[in-house]
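<goal> How does this chain fold?
<sample>
Here is the protein in question

***
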Amino acid sequence: MAGRQVVVDGSNIATEGRSLPSLAQLDDAVRAYQAEHPEDTTIVVVDATFGHRIDQSERRAFEEAEAAGELVSPPAGAIGRGDRFLLQIANRTGATVLSNDSFQEFHGEYGWLFDEGRLLGAKPVQGVGWIFTPRTPVRGPKSRVAVRAGKRAKAAEKRVSPEARKAIAEATADAVSPTQGERGRSRRGRGRGPAEPVNEPLAFITFIADHQPGSEVEAIVESFTSHGAFVTANGARCYVPLTGLGDPPPRSAKEVLNRGEPRTFVVQALDPPRRGIELALPGVAKVAGVPTDETVEAETGFRTSGIMYLGESAEDLARMEAWLDHAREYQLDTRLIDAAEVARLLPGIAKPWAGALYTPSDGKAEPQMAAPAIAAAGLAPSRRYWPHHLLNRSSSAMLGAHTST
């Protein structure tokens, strides 16, 4: 008889009847299930913080099991900790989930959790061993919010026209893998898909339904960046900038936070276009309508770095000076700088330059992060799309778009 695929919620089973997870308990449960159902194939999934929460004496065994592929964990900062990762595996493979969790925040996405045979519970009984039995998820407030949010997300998705979807897909693809010049060079980044917004629609909607700016939320510290830390709260991925960790800000988030620890934060700002959420520690939170520059940089790769076009001769500088009229028209802070200022801004530059065209406020972003964020912002009802229309350009300045068909 052919067996079924079973995805084991390792973090849940390892914590059954306990305050902290036990690798030994998880191993005992999996072995008992395999002995009772030898025809089934099991995949054991634990969340990204599992290795930090088990007893020190079990960590080497955990690392060995993970290296051997006996345990699977999502990347640090995965939405919903390990729950979404686990449910994605089960959804793709049609597997049964072995867990005592009801996954209420995912009822709007994964209605099959209520199908017969898709969810099993597990309980250790003293003197008997592990008992495995079919179960049905428990509905509750989070479940109702998730189901309503799921319906709203599907309705909003239907309102986006096929033409708009195509335009977004094409714009993202062009930004991520731009076509090269006529020399026949290949497209860059082939095979690397664009990054998604910070959160999936349902996770973001569910979070903001429960947590408005200024409210407190419990979150787990997942990973660190040069400007702060990513945490997960209520199934959503959030960012905490350094300015949200102290006044004055610490040099590193690691001075204040520890990976895997739960902390209380305040919702400081929401960023609907990127489905981003910014948090801060109580006492230093400054509730605002927009996220800080540190959060924008962490989520899109954007940072203000300035841009400089170098000139070798007086003729080059004369052409650059003529372009300043375009810059003034759009209130840019572009200016012409001399050789001395070039040397000051680019210390150690080997070649002498006559001067440069310099725009201090210009910046740059990571295309794989920024293009989908721009596309997501374009989904707002007030946006209009003109696919396949030409752009007016003057040098590197975009002046307008032909919208006539």
Observations:
- The CA atoms of residues 7 and 43 lie 5 Å apart.
- The chain has a mean pLDDT of 77.
- The chain has twelve helices and 17 strands.
